[in-house]
């Protein structure tokens, strides 16, 4: 009768849980069957024992205390339990439980201690308290490690072993109190109610077991005052096995090890990977479900057989189905941080890129390189539509992504979350969500570094041109790529709206109290969080809407100290490994891009604009100038023929990205990466050109002859500006440098001098400037070159040129009076015969053509 009743109940339970219907409680059929009948690699030898339960349980003589004397609530435990004081627990700056009172226990407790009695490798697996009435028995075993302990698998310091050891820093945190306070501070955990239940009231998924409450993932009352804690048995049931072999090794998990159906914005206990039962990466809006790493119509690449076998994935597992396990492993390689899979710098055996790593130091990028690499090294069968970023970061000039490039310590600098306050940003509060939003303190940003997650939030990136998605939002059909639209056709207006791969990142928006180039931003507003259902793309939105916002958190005085003193000051120095060598273009320190790219609304268009930072004698017809990274220029009178597509479209209203100039090398006539849509990636990852540019920017950019044969190869400027207009004596186009007598004055000077250089007349860091058209003016050299006032540099010969970092590189031009565009005459140029001069040369006080003959007949 009892057997019939039990069978009926079991049938009801199986029918009630459709996804779990193939999972049964049958320890005999699992690797935990360590008896002589066990079929796993580790089991008792002949003459050992045929008893299955005895390796963990005994009806008599069970362990009541651990070796430290602490009382235990153990289920008739038949093993000694090590003293927990020997364990090194998991920790990270984004583990919010560390900042909450009684948020976690210092040492493992509950079922975790029981599991570790085998899995920490300190006790032989065959050692039990009682066997057949005999005490302290050692059962002979096969397949064990030294001393009869847990076998090493692929190596005790690898991520493919269940010899966890006593150093648990590479293992999922345990003995953590799952509370509403923890969920609120983290921001991406399921919000349990006061009774620690989720969903609230029912606790059908998360909760402490009690009469009528049987959650899928049971917390254990091992915390302070019986608070429910996450322990090993919250996620694992050591008795269950999966009946469907197609689902692969389920690792004794209580729910799915893989994503078994297309994810949605709502939690699906019957199909979602187990991680999502606690970690709400969707935040109710489908953010993770529609991300590039979770969508079946995007993440459809499959694992190579060797990589799948090592990870114990079913053959042919697609990326979307591996889900969290692509990048994370709950018991990962020793040395990795935040449970990143293979996230260390440990070398791999030559010729075997799919082997298991053995320890090493943290290297977050290595997790990404599992897929974002060459076809020969990738874990995937095809990477045709996966950007190869590892190769980009191996170019001569690159972001400082390796630990050695960040100062040479063994610890990565990048670290999100924590308890700190940076002005308007407070990461110490009870609902700060700083870890979820990948926020980093300004103190860490000041230590120059780059990691993939500095720019990209892998839980939020989407395959759309815009971060807001398409017409149907992020749930619609994905675009051909997640990078911004760059259409070189007539009628397209280029923008600076953040692309899909930047969705949900962390950035800053500068604010300004002055329009002067000489002034620093007055403050910064942090941009953070996922937009959710919002389609607001304004700069004022609370989240990142522009690419430059991500760049400026490092490339401005938000990310370092800037005393606004030139030529050197307190800004970071060039010279790190993998960076632009100091002395390139005379530069030895960084410049402040938030200061340079400022786009004052009052300085748009032409005419006289107040307080540009130029001397008061040079204010007439003058104004700030900038490349339209932050905002449009308003100068819509330019000739479209002076630009390559798409820059001739919507002149004055178009905007651009930092990554239009910064990235790996492109063809001479374009900023589009070679190889088409799935070719070389967009983005400032690496380049063979200094300053991580798509072309050469130095004192040779221009043309070596009269331009009949075209400009010098790979010049950065001419990837956007038409060289036929700027560097060819026969150029027919026009620019603002024009008059009715001589026509195109760029072409005129190219013919007269028989060559041309951009830096003779234009600023050496052409982000933005105090004068119109990015023009230098050696009559008005000011604080940007370390001059106390606005002074004239002395020159009286062609061989002389002014060099002063950061803004003057072989500069020659002196402007007496700025002209409106199209109305320049020769007497606008030349010496102003200032009362205050500097330099050791003599000084030609001529102007117009006489001055040009004196100093510009054959410039360097």
Summarize the structure in words.
The chain has 860 residues and is low in regular secondary structure. 11% of the residues lie in helices and 8% in strands. The chain has 15 helices and 26 strands. The strands form 13 sheets. The protein has a two-stranded antiparallel ribbon. A two-stranded antiparallel sheet has the order 2-5. Strands 3-4 form a two-stranded antiparallel ribbon. A hairpin with a 2-residue loop joins strand 3 (127-131) and strand 4 (134-138). The longest helix is centred in the first third of the chain and has 15 residues, at 2-16. The chain starts with a helix and ends in a 5-residue tail after the last helix.
Write the layout of secondary structure elements.
Blueprint: H1 2-16, E1 23-25, E2 43-44, H2 110-119, E3 127-131, E4 134-138, E5 141-142, E6 176-177, H3 180-186, E7 206-208, E8 217-219, E9 229-230, H4 232-235, E10 240-242, H5 305-311, H6 319-322, H7 364-368, H8 389-392, E11 397-398, E12 421-422, E13 425-426, H9 442-445, H10 452-455, E14 507-511, E15 523-527, H11 547-552, H12 593-596, E16 625-626, E17 686-687, E18 702-703, H13 723-726, E19 738-739, E20 743-744, H14 745-753, E21 756-757, E22 768-769, E23 792-793, E24 802-804, E25 808-811, E26 837-838, H15 848-855
Parallel strand pairs: 7-8, 23-26
Antiparallel strand pairs: 1-10, 2-5, 3-4, 6-9, 11-17, 12-13, 14-15, 16-22, 18-21, 19-20, 24-25
């Amino acid at each position: 009768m009892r057997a019939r009743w039990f069978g009926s109940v079991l049938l009801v339970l199986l029918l009630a849980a459709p996804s779990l219907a193939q999972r049964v409680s049958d320890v005999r059929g699992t690797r935990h069957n360590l008896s002589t009948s066990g079929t796993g690699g580790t089991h008792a030898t002949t003459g050992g024992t045929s008893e299955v339960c005895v390796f963990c349980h005994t009806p008599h003589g069970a362990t009541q205390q651990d070796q430290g004397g602490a009382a235990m609530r153990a289920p008739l435990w038949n093993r000694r339990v090590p003293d927990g004081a020997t364990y090194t627990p998991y920790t990270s700056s984004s583990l919010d439980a560390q900042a909450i009172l009684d948020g976690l226990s210092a040492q493992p407790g509950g079922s975790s201690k029981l599991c570790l009695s085998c899995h920490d490798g300190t006790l032989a697996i065959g050692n039990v308290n009682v066997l057949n009435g005999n005490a302290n028995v050692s059962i002979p075993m096969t397949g064990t490690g030294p001393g009869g302990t847990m076998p090493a698998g692929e190596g005790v310091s690898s991520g493919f072993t269940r010899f966890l050891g006593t150093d648990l820093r590479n293992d999922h945190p345990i003995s953590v109190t799952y509370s509403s306070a923890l969920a609120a501070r983290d921001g991406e955990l399921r919000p349990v109610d006061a009774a620690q239940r989720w969903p609230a009231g029912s606790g059908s998924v998360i909760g402490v077991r009690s009469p009528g409450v049987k959650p899928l993932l049971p917390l254990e009352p091992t915390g302070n005052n019986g608070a429910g804690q996450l322990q090993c048995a919250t996620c694992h049931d050591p008795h269950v096995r999966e009946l469907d072999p197609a689902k692969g090794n389920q690792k004794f998990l209580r729910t799915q090890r893989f994503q078994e159906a297309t994810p949605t914005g709502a939690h699906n206990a019957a199909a979602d990977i187990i991680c999502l039962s606690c970690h709400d990466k969707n935040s109710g809006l489908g953010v993770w479900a529609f991300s590039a790493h979770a969508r079946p119509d995007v993440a459809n690449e499959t694992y190579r057989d060797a990589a799948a076998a090592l990870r114990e994935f079913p053959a042919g597992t697609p990326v979307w189905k591996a889900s969290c396990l692509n990048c994370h492993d709950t018991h990962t390689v020793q040395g990795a941080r935040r449970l990143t899979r293979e996230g260390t710098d440990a070398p791999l055996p030559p010729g075997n890129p799919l082997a298991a790593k053995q320890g090493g130091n943290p290297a977050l990028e290595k997790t990404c390189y599992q897929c974002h690499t060459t076809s020969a090294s990738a874990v995937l069968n095809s990477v045709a539509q996966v950007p190869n970023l590892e190769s980009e970061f191996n170019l001569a000039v690159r972001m400082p992504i390796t630990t050695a490039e960040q100062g040479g310590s063994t610890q990565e600098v990048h670290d999100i979350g924590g308890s700190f306050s940076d002005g308007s940003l407070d990461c110490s509060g009870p609902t700060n969500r700083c870890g979820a939003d990948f926020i980093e303190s300004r103190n860490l940003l000041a230590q120059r570094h780059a990691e993939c997650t500095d720019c990209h939030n892998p839980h939020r990136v989407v395959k759309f041109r815009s971060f807001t998605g398409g017409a149907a939002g992020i749930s619609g059909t994905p675009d051909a790529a997640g990078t911004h639209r760059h259409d070189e056709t007539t009628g397209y207006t280029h923008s600076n709206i953040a692309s899909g791969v930047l969705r949900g990142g962390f950035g800053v928006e500068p604010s300004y109290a002055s329009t002067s180039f000489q002034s620093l931003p007055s403050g910064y507003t942090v941009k953070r969080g996922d937009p959710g259902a919002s389609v607001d793309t304004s700069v004022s939105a609370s989240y990142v809407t522009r690419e430059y916002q991500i760049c400026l958190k490092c490339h401005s005085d938000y990310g370092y100290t800037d005393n606004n003193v030139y030529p050197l000051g307190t800004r970071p120095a060039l010279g790190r490994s993998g960076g632009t060598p100091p002395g390139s273009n005379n530069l030895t320190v960084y410049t402040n891009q938030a200061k340079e790219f400022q786009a004052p609304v009052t300085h748009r268009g032409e005419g006289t604009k107040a307080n540009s930072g130029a001397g008061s004698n040079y204010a007439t017809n003058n104004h700030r100038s900038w490349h339209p990274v932050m905002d449009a220029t308003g100068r819509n009178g330019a000739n479209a023929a002076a630009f390559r597509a798409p820059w001739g479209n919507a002149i004055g209203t178009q905007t651009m990205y930092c990554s239009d100039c910064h990235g790996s090398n492109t063809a001479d006539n374009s900023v589009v990466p070679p190889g088409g849509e799935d070719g070389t990636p967009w983005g400032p990852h690496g380049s063979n050109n200094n300053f991580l540019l798509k072309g050469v920017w130095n004192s040779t950019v221009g043309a070596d002859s009269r331009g009949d044969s075209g400009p010098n190869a790979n010049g950065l400027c001419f990837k956007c500006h038409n060289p036929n207009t700027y560097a060819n004596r026969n150029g027919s186009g026009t620019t603002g440098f024009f008059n009715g007598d001589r026509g195109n004055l760029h072409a005129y000077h190219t013919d007269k001098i028989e060559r041309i250089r951009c830096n003779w007349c234009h600023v050496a860091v052409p982000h933005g400037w105090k004068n119109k058209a990015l023009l230098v003016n050696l009559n008005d050299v000011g604080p940007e070159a370390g001059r106390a006032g606005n002074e004239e540099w002395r020159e009286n010969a062609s061989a002389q040129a002014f060099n002063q970092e950061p803004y003057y590189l072989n500069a020659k031009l002196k402007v007496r009076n700025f002209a409106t565009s199209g109305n320049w005459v020769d007497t606008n140029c030349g010496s102003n015969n200032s009362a205050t001069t500097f330099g050791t040369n003599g000084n030609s006080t001529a102007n117009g053509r006489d001055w040009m003959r004196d100093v510009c007949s054959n410039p360097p």
